[in-house]
């Protein structure tokens, strides 16, 4: 009986630990015009470069947009609005459990014109105080811990 209760306790602790782990991130920002005014109803399209999966949203009345629960990876961000040039941010890298903020300044012009930002955007987490670092397989394998038990991680 005692062994059964210990096993049940161990299973519940492991399940609680696994449910707390997340492998997602989020992206948010504000769309403004050159004078700093907020632009509402901007179509923001986010495309995962690996899977070509696309998500689109509109900015709210304050020019804000949010993409919650994103898979970490490389993305392309595109902003379109009538009376403004299309804004493109390419090579946007989102990391595990690290919310990113990308603010967009839309330039006045025809919709057929576009501005492409090819350089990597500087991602600053202004959403919360979490710090996250992506760790590859090699550093984990090289970690010294007793009996190579993954629970010790």
Provide an overview of this structure:
The longest helix has 19 residues, at 2-20. The mean pLDDT is 79. The protein has helices at residues 2-20, 137-141; strands at 25-32, 43-48, 54-58, 64-70, 73-80, 86-94, 100-101, 104-105, 114-117. The protein has 153 residues and is an alpha/beta fold. Strands 3-2-5-6-9 form a 5-stranded mixed beta sheet, with no helix packed on it. Strands 1, 4, 7 and 8 form a 4-stranded mixed beta sheet that branches.
Features:
alpha/beta, five-stranded mixed beta sheet, four-stranded mixed beta sheet, 153 residues
Separation of termini? 30 Å
Number of strands: 9
Cα Rg: 21 Å
Report the total helices: 2
β-strand percent reads 25-35%
**How do the strands line up in the largest sheet?**
3-2-5-6-9
Silhouette: elongated
Q: Strand-and-helix sequence, N→C?
A: HEEEEEEEEEH
């Amino acid at each position: 009986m005692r062994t059964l209760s210990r096993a049940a306790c161990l299973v519940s602790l492991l399940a609680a630990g696994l449910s707390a782990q997340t492998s997602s991130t989020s992206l948010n920002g504000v769309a403004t015009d050159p004078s700093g005014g907020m632009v509402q109803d901007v179509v923001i399209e986010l495309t995962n470069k690996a899977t070509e999966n696309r998500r689109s949203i509109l900015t709210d009345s304050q020019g804000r947009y949010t993409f919650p629960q994103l898979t970490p990876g490389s993305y392309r961000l595109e902003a379109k609005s009538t009376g403004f040039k299309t804004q493109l941010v390419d090579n946007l890298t989102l990391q595990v459990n690290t919310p990113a903020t990308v603010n967009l300044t839309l330039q006045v012009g025809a919709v057929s014109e576009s501005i492409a930002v090819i350089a990597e955007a500087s991602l600053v987490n202004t959403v919360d105080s979490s710090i996250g670092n992506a760790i590859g397989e090699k550093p984990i394998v090289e970690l010294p811990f007793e009996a190579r038990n993954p629970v010790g991680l």
